[in-house]
Amino acid sequence: MKPVDKIAARNSALADLGLSPSASSDEIREAWRNIAFRAHPDHMPGDCEDFSRAKTAYDFLRKQGLGAKGALGPQMPKRPRLKKRVIELPPEDISACKSMLNPTQALPHMAGSPSPRDADVEPAASDHVPDAVGCYGRHLTFFVATPVTEGANRIALPTSVLSNRRHVETEILSFKSNNTGPGEVVIPDTICERKFPGAKSVRIRFEANQDMIDEFWLAG
């Protein structure tokens, strides 16, 4: 049966149940129950035409899928599924990040870390540069091969990943950690809004390897 024929047959079946083409699954079931009760041969001796027509219509609609083939009325456009992608940062972007990591740069601090007036970033702060960034819609995850270290850490990040700017823009963020090794840091919303145009959230995963990147592809 051609699609146009299926639509015509469906509308005809709905009409036999006294319903409009936009009837929902619940409305179809309710209409059938009412007709089955009212027009059942046990209640209407000698006249089964209405019951038979309604049963044929309901059986057809049930086989088509009450809610799967347009039974929910005018179909709302489906939201496109967010696509995941992992971008290997080009050498020039990595170089731009590394060039930012010098003691004279002013550092925007993450929530919970001391301000420059309270304490300077220690000279021995561990510096980090990401190798890749995972994009899931407007959610960014930076993958850093180096482990986070106990104490002061600095990381230079390209902030224009989601923009169409021709030249990479880089920011340095600093934070303190109580642990050493792999971990994840979530950029506070206040910094994310100011420093990462178009991003809805930004995460940094330290000591990231290929398994972690593969996990990003498969999750969610």
Please, could you describe this protein's structure?
This protein is an alpha/beta fold and 220 residues long. It has six helices and eight strands. β3 and β4 form a beta hairpin. α1 packs across α3. The longest helix has 16 residues. About 10% of the residues have low confidence.
What distinguishing features does this structure have?
single chain; 220 residues; alpha/beta; 20% strand
Short description:
The protein is α/β, with parallel strands linked by helices and 220 residues long. It contains 6 helices and 8 strands; from the N terminus they run αααβαββββββαβα.
Beta-strand content: 15-25%
How are strands sequenced across the largest beta sheet?
A: 1-3-4-8-7
How would you describe the oligomerization state of the chains in this entry? single chain
Runs in which pLDDT lies below 50 for 5 or more consecutive residues are 68-76, 111-122
Shape: rod-shaped
What proportion of the residues is helical, as a percent range?
Answer: 25-40%
User: Could you report the average pLDDT, rounded to the nearest whole number?
Assistant: 78
For the sheet with most strands, the description reads:
5 strands, mixed
Quick one: how many beta strands? 8
User: How many helices?
Assistant: 6
**Topology as a string of helices (H) and strands (E):** HHHEHEEEEEEHEH
Supply the helix-strand structural class: alpha/beta
Distance between the termini: 37 Å
Gyration radius (Cα, Å) is 31 Å
Topology:
Layout (H helix, E strand, L loop, with lengths): L2 H14 L8 H15 L9 H16 L19 E5 L2 H10 L25 E3 L3 E5 L2 E5 L7 E8 L11 E8 L5 E4 L2 H7 L5 E6 L3 H9 L2
Parallel strand pairs: 2-5, 4-8
Antiparallel strand pairs: 1-3, 3-4, 5-6, 7-8
Helix pairs in contact: 1-3, 2-3
